[in-house]
Amino acid sequence: MKYLKPWWSEGGGLLHLTILLSLAGLHLDLDLDLYLVLPPPTLFRDELLLGDCQTNPAYAPSLFPAAGGWGRTDHLHPKGREPDPAAEPEGQLFREVRTLGVPFIPRTRVDAWLVHSVAAGDADGAHGLLGAAAASASSAGGVGTSADSGSQAAPGGGEDPRAAPSSPLEEEEAPTEPTAQVPDARGRASEDNEVLRAMGHSSQQEENEQRVSSAQKEKSLHQKNEDENKIADKPEWEAEKTTESREERHLNGTDTSFSLEDLLQLLSSQSENSLERYLYGTDTSFSLEDLLQLLSSQSKNLPERHLNGTDTSFSLEDLLQLLSSQSENSLEGISLGDSPLPGGINDVMNSSAHYHVNISQAISHDVNLHEAMLLCPNNTFRRDPVERTSQPREPFLPLNSHTINPEQTLPRANLTGFLPPVDHQLRNLTSQDLYDLNINMFDEINSVSLATESFDPLEVSHLFEQPDSDSGLSLNSSHNSISVIKSNSSVCEGAIGSSSDLESPSHCALEGAVGGYYPEPRKICQVDLRSDSGFHRDLAFQHVLHDHTYHLQPSAPESTSESFSWTGKSHKIRSRYLDDTDRHLSRDERRAEALHIPFSIDEIVHMPVDSFNSMLSRHYLTDLQVSLIRDIRRRGKNKVAAQNCRKRKLDIILNLEDDVCNLKAKKETLKSERAQCKRAINIMKQKLHDLYRDIFSRLRDDEGRPVNPNEYALQFSHDGSVWIIPKELVTSRHKKETQKGKRKSERRN
DNA sequence: GTTTAGTGTCATTAT
DNA sequence: AGATAATGACACTAA
């Protein structure tokens, strides 16, 4: 069974998802309280519309209620402003939120219990784990505790849930261990990832994680055997009683301990259906194997206590954090406690309110357990949904940044149905919003660097002014230009092809625009484009983040965000005109990035002319941008035309070659026929000569002497008589007849 | 180091 | 008149 019970409040909404599993005597009830982050309503209408992401940070506290483990909001309050609960009449946001999909923070409470002779898992352990998860989430400061308590926790909107736990469960059961160790686990995992990433050995990373996974599985098996022995010793009624009591305790939040191994055992015995399908409502079946795998992979992010078996407690907050962190939009950045939270979340809302962005998709992605299971071991983010769907995924991705690439991930997301009905038109903005989110995020982070680096837009203009060597390399660029270009290139590196590159906000922002496809371009981007500071700032991002991208996997496959025509072509094609540090972007793409062209190359090139012109007119674009877009379109079309031309030329050449072969064969045939005719003619001549000789040998003149064939010739008359006449007469007569024939033929002509 | 195939781009012309 | 297609010429890169 599945329950989707949305509940909204000002500053946030609580989505209660209950998953009840009952398979083969095993019951698992997952209560997922997903806290949907919302800004104050005023942001929808006023500040956000201005595109100023940082003018009103009042929404921040409500964004990250679970700051203890899921997010910090202090950096979102540069002015120390607190949200004003009375800023908007209660209920207004409710109506707006009903039409919006918003980021969420998983707020978990997992109920699980075992009944009867559970083949695998210690009920106590499982219970403890789930309870711990609930308590952990509670102690993390989340707004709302469960489906029941959540509706009581959020009212007021501006109330900071971190300061005031809103349910008895949180107050009473807040376990010290999960809440204390979960962030530590994340931190440790993050450190490990950093080390591995610094070593630059993804394979080693995989080995480590596989090692962890295998060790955990062994531990799970060992624990399973012990648990089976324990259960076997207990009478059935006692087991039921224990189960019920566990359930009660868990529902009450009094039991917070839980064993990961137990849960693994539970999950391992389940069917092979997909949790993802279950969550999305397309299939009521449930793939606990997926969750098992998820948990196994998550183990590397857990503290060592989970690995060495000294502590088997496990918080599903970790799990949901994992899920949240692995989703493909910047919502992860919001959800993660360690993530620098941008002041530009209002951009998200702004965009959501006025442009068509699919936020629900983003939310859906956040709860895509299956995907998270596959890709989340390192709390890394994937940035290219196309790559995700079309290319083999990296089982373990380095944790490079908390930023993500919303541009490429979200627009392609086609996951809906998880959330309650949301205004469809308002679901389509997440990517661009998150782009702005990233921009603002790193704007704050890199503000110092901006001051010191003092970027000059002219540096980027060099990118357009560099000698138009077809290679597109900045060979003649100045040092600064090279720096910028290289930075840009490095930022872009792996963006398209590598799912592990998550550090470049500018790139992330542009990646979707350049090479990605947007059904609807985002005007919000143009706000930044109009300002030099934004342009400046983005360059700074590229520069500041320069170092963060060199450890990216160089061999990352090209993304399909490169829906450009040469996506599937050879490496030679792709690598052409590219810098050594930027093997994935063409010159036009880099230029488009530099100017933040909000359209993909594919769009620009292949869009019908009417749509293209309307697109240019509908969006505020600078002259430089328009010029570049038109150049890109011209070059793109010319490139296709050149390809077609060469193909045609090649076809013509091939056809000509075929014609030559055919003609040669025909010539040989004619030669042979000619030879045969010559041979036949010679034979006929020889026979005629022999006949002539034979006739003259038998002829005699009046005196009985043989007739000389050299002096006389045979002449046939029309009446059939044969005359022997001198050759001279034959020659003269032949000439006359020949002349007559010519005259006749001339007359006919 | 040279050659060659493949490619992108520009300029020009044709449609 | 503008957009697009076609094509020759050139430059560049990788093999």
Helix-strand layout with pairing:
Blueprint lengths: L1 E8 L2 E12 L2 E12 L3 H5 L14 H4 L28 H7 L5 E11 L8 H17 L7 H7 L14 H6 L2 H24 L2 H32 L2 H17 L7 H9 L6 H5 L8 H11 L5 H5 L7 H11 L4 H5 L9 H10 L2 E2 H8 L2 H7 L9 H6 L15 H4 L17 E2 L1 H16 L1 H7 L3 H9 L13 H14 L12 H9 L9 H8 L1 H13 L26 H5 L11 H8 L6 H6 L2 H10 L4 H76 L13 E5 L5 E5 H22 L1
Antiparallel strand pairs: 1-2, 2-3, 3-4, 5-6, 7-8
The protein binds a DNA duplex (15 and 15 nucleotides) through α28 and α32.
| Main sheet strand line-up | 1-2-3-4
Whole-number radius of gyration? 41 Å
Q: Which word captures the global form? A: elongated
Structural class assignment? alpha+beta
Give the mean pLDDT. 48
- What share of the residues lie within helices? 40-55%
Annotation, overall tally of beta strands: 8
> DSSP helix count?
33
Ends distance: 100 Å
Percent in strands: 5-15%
Number of domain units: 3
For the sheet with most strands, the description reads: 4 strands, antiparallel
